[in-house]
């Protein structure tokens, strides 16, 4: 089927709050900034949803985004921990190569906070805050 512009129509899925997951056929020319189409050819493929169906889909969509955001945060934290593990392994390796007396001296100093470790923790916090902020901005 062709629209009034003479080009084949597009079948798309709506993800608006009013019609989540509902398929429609419309003109392919669509400007996302103005919301205008090339012509006014537009019709729904699926039947209208009931209120409860619409609400359930909206809840599931929001939940899916929340889970995706959580996963991103977990992945970012995991990457940070991998870096921290690598750094600590290298440090441990250096200590083990030192002669016994030098090693005892390191032990006496105790585990003073390391600059590198602190930086990684700060980066992790910044990444987490960023994802939380993005999530809140997208879904209120
Ligand atoms: Zn058109």
Report on the architecture of this protein.
The chain is mainly alpha-helical. It folds into two domains: 10-44, no CATH class; 51-139. It has three helices and three strands. The protein has helices spanning 51-97, 100-109, 115-139; strands at 10-14, 22-26, 42-44. α1 runs antiparallel to α3. The radius of gyration is 27 Å and the shape is elongated. Bound molecules: zinc ion.
TL;DR of this structure?
The chain is mainly alpha-helical. 59% of the residues lie in helices and 9% in strands. Strand 1 (10-14) and strand 2 (22-26) form a beta hairpin.
Q: What value does the Rg take, in angstroms?
A: 27 Å
For the largest beta-sheet, the strand count, sense and barrel status come to: 3 strands, antiparallel
Mean pLDDT: 88
Bound molecules: zinc ion
Q: Share of helix among residues?
A: 55-70%
- Summed up, the domain count is 2
Which sequence of strands runs across the widest sheet? 1-2-3
Q: Would you identify the regions where 5 or more consecutive residues have pLDDT less than 50?
A: none
Terminal CA distance: 39 Å
The count of DSSP E runs of length 2 or more, i.e. the number of strands, is 3
* Secondary-structure element string: EEEHHH
Please give the count of helices.
3
Q: Which structural class should the secondary elements be placed in?
A: mainly alpha
What does the overall shape look like? Answer: elongated
Strand coverage percent:
5-15%
